[in-house]
Amino acid sequence: MTYLFLVVGLLLLLGGAEFLVKGAAALATRIGVSPFLIGLTLVGFGTSSPELVASLQGAFEGYPGIAVGNVVGSNIANLLLILGASGLIFPLLCDRSALKRDGVMMLLAAAAMIAVCLTGELSRAAGFVFLAVLALYLVYTYRADKKGQDGAGVLHAAEAEFLKGGRAMSLVIEAAMAIGGLVALVVGASLLVDAAVEIATNFGISDSVVGLTVVAIGTSLPELATSVLAAFRRKADIAIGNVVGSNIFNVLGIAGVVAAVKPVPIPADIASFDIWVMGAASILFMVFAWTGARIGRVEALLLLIAYGAYVTVLLR
Predict the structure, then answer these.
(1) CB 30 within 8 A of CB 171
(2) Quick one: DSSP state of residue 122?
């Protein structure tokens, strides 16, 4: 039954995030919110919502390895696994104007997460600082787009339209999708975390390893589905924007909320190894994306090989 609950939890997370994003985006459009603002906020929060619920669940149940490992592991999976898989399907062209702002912000967020992890605790103070920085980043991004200072705003608007879909829905259906998606996320995260902890106990592995692998990959399913679909449709900018935005929200938003609500200690194994892998993966992505303005199939294959090597080290 444990594995059944694990699968059901993963499906609920994937479906819940899908319905929440589409329903919330449609409701926001109905009340006049711009596609850019929807892409910047609702889509970013929506695709990272499984990480939020799962990390909160881990924190409240006393599993810091899941609470912290989920954030770190999701960021690693986003950069190495998801971009690698997407880039193999179709080469991903990179908008350097978006990288200048969002890519750099992703690097700064990764550096901030590393610094906090080295203190030994994801404290409430750190959580509030993360949330404040996220708020400032969103305000700056919104104002920069309004003034036409960069081209990244077009990408956020495209993300919103891509994930929202083109079919018009009634108000009742939009609200039902948003609420139903949220409920599915809560139930799915509970099933996923409980099943993952039981699997870890049965195999004698730490909750950190489970958080970094099973839970992290499971909560990254919305990003995986979105990026792979975007690659198939040759919307490479959306695939990259989805991952970069998710990584920013994971650190500043998800870790920020978790720390503000329930501070957690940083597992020693994550502080000594996994945060550095996250930092290295962030730098590697920026090097690939900036130097050639694309992630071709060779780079994508290298990303996948790197992820395979990382998981092998964790499970050895």
Answers:
(1) yes
(2) E
For residue 166, the SS3 value is: coil
- What's the pLDDT tens digit per position in 33-75? 555 555 556 666 666 778 888 899 889 988 899 999 999 999 9
Residue 256 CB: number of other CB atoms within 10 A? 25
- Judged by phi (left if over 0) then psi (alpha if -120 to 50, else beta), residue 252 lies in alpha
- pLDDT score, position 278: 97
Selection from 24, 89, 19, 124 nearest residue 230 by Cα: 89
CA-to-CA dists, residue 284 to 72, 79, 125, 299, angstroms:
16, 9, 30, 10
Output the pLDDT for position 140: 84
Q: Which two tokens stand for residue 290?
A: 């900036």
- Token readout for 90 is 């179709």
Q: Do 15 and 181 meet the contact criterion of CB atoms below 8 Å apart? A: yes
Q: Look up residue 104 and give its DSSP letter.
A: H
Report yes or no: 151 and 53 within 8 Å, Cβ to Cβ: no
The structure's pTM equals 0.85
Q: Which two tokens stand for residue 99?
A: 């990288």
DSSP H helices, 204-296, are: 207-210, 216-219, 221-232, 236-248, 256-261, 268-269, 275-292
Q: Rounded to an integer, what distance in angstroms lies between the CA atom of residue 44 and that of residue 156?
A: 9
CA distance 170 to 239: 29
- 148: which DSSP letter? T
**pLDDT tens digit string along 141-198?**
777 766 654 555 555 555 555 555 556 667 778 778 878 877 887 788 778 888 887 8
